[in-house]
Amino acid sequence: MNIAIVGLGYVGAPLAVALAPHFSVVGYDVDAARVQELREGCDRTREIEPGALASCTARWTTEPACITRSDVVIVTVPTPIDEFRVPDLGAVRAATETIGSYMRRGTIVVYESTVYPGVTQDICVPLLEQGSGLTYPQDFSVGYSPERINPGDRVHTLTTTTKIVAGDTPEVRDTLARIYGAITRIYAAPTIKVAEAAKVLENTQRDINIALMNELSQIFCRLGIDTTDVIDAARSKWNFMDFRPGLVGGHCISVDPYYLSHKAASHGIVADMILSARHINESMPAFVTEQLLSRLMQRKLLQPGTVITILGVTFKENVKDVRNSGVIPIHRQLSRLDLTVQLIDPLADADALRHDEGLHIIPLSEARPADAIVLAVPHADFVEQGWPLIERLARPGQEVVVADIKAVLPRESRPRHVVHWRP
Ligand SMILES: NC(=O)c1ccc[n+]([C@@H]2O[C@H](COP(=O)([O-])OP(=O)(O)OC[C@H]3O[C@@H](n4cnc5c(N)ncnc54)[C@H](O)[C@@H]3O)[C@@H](O)[C@H]2O)c1
Q1: Residue of 29, 223, 149 whose CA lies nearest to 39
Q2: Best substitution site from 6, 11, 256, 325 to test ligand 1's pocket, by max atoms within 8 Å of Cβ?
Q3: How far away, in angstroms, is 10 Cα from ligand 1 center?
Q4: Nearest atom, ligand 1, residue 79 CA
Q5: Does an H or E element contain 352, and which?
Q6: Pocket residues for ligand 1 (CB within 6 Å)?
Q7: Residue 54 to residue 52: CA distance in whole angstroms
Q8: Most-buried pick from 165, 213, 321, 344 (CB within 10 A)?
């Protein structure tokens, strides 16, 4: 079985590495730098073990002709939203057009990119027909298998997480079950639309649950009640669902609900709950900024030149990815005032941050003493260092305001000069 993987990012490259011991695998990407890096055994996403990449037998290429020799083509290109929060299927369409021009009769094209129900069959199939001149379903087949990797998570990985597979016929579904079954447990969904919908459901459910905690945290904060204390008390009930308030960013949770609400709108449904969860989660950076500034004002620490240090800028802890990070709007809001805002993050993709957001990271050793510190992303290294790190970064001999967004600093050992706020 020859398999081509189209799009070699966080999802595609680890998939190629996992499948390569079992099948003949070629990884194709339009980004020559990414292909070169994989050839050299280097993965900037850090989702692949360096040893696994070095010994991987997959071939990495920018040459789409590899698609012609493939029995199965798996699409793992990005599915972002545009500035109007509308699904941007540009990469899926472009990749599909490329596949259409190179595929041959009998190919199975499988989509892994997160999409709304209907994209595979209603949008991609016609493009494949157009590009190839072949007729569907006689000449080629399609399938869908959503990716569920959780970046930075070494427990719930591609090979330890059940993978949903769906095909346009039972035979295609069985072929896909055999391919993915070589690397992980599989769940065969009855239709492609069910598989597409299951992925957006998972991420929308998570977004809504976090939004509820964010709304509650905004309420409790106004009432002068500590949300973490409330959650700890509520957790004593057997069926409590332990979601925490925080910033919701990244390429999936903060994006995928818009795919579902967009599709719903085309059927006359305003997805109130989904959109209101998005609204609440997108309001969290402003809430954090407001809480921080009001505490600085109360302590008379807010003046031109006040220094604020932000620890962490990735979309979540222990990853490199800065896409849609909730820390970026916090930085932007604080920088609009006449304040010095410095960003520290030893893990973040500094090039992407500079290139996409115009933001610069400084090394810890160059940080100026701070009047306020936002522990925005609890990377393991920050959490391990705990209060001593905060003391090292704080301006000596005065109070310092600390916004501990994920509530990881132990309240009982808080140094006396720290004003500790957590959502
Ligand atoms: N990152 C995650 O943790 C994660 C988890 C689950 C699902 N997903 C979904 O998987 C998909 C891919 O996400 P990702 O994070 O791997 O994206 P990514 O941006 O890391 O990688 C995508 C790759 O596709 C390449 N590409 C873009 N257009 C192309 C084209 N026309 N032909 C060939 N290659 C092309 C890009 O150069 C890039 O290397 C998205 O739909 C995403 O929602 C991502």
Answers
A1: 29
A2: 11
A3: 6
A4: 41
A5: helix 350-352
A6: 6-12, 28-31, 34, 76-79, 91, 94-95, 98, 112-114, 147, 149, 151, 251-252
A7: 6
A8: 165
Residue nearest to atom 13 of ligand 1 (CA): 78
Q: Which two tokens stand for residue 343?
A: 């960003």
Query: Rounded distance, CA 400 to CA 419, Å?
Result: 6
What domains, with CATH codes, occur in the chain? Answer: 2-190 (3.40.50.720), 256-421 (3.40.50.720)
Q: Which of 58, 50, 57, 81 is nearest to 12 (CA)?
A: 58
Alpha helix (H) residue ranges in 77-124: 90-102
pLDDT digits (tens, 9 = 90+) for 195-222: 999 999 999 999 999 999 999 999 999 9
Residue whose CA is closest, atom 35 of ligand 1? 7
Per-residue pLDDT tens over the stretch 80-120: 999 999 999 999 999 999 999 999 999 999 999 999 999 99
Residue 20 is which amino acid? A
Q: Which residue matches tokens 């919701």? A: 248
Cis peptide leading into residue 137 (ω within 30°): yes
252 belongs to the catalytic site: yes
Determine the straight-line distance between the first and last CA of the chain, rounded to whole angstroms. 52
**Residues 201 and 273: beta-carbon distance below 8 Å:** no
Pocket test for ligand 1, best of 48, 76, 150, 199 (most atoms within 8 A of CB): 76
Mutate to test the pocket of ligand 1, among 147, 256, 316 (most ligand atoms within 8 A of CB): 147
The DSSP call for residue 337 is S
Average pLDDT, rounded, for the chain: 96
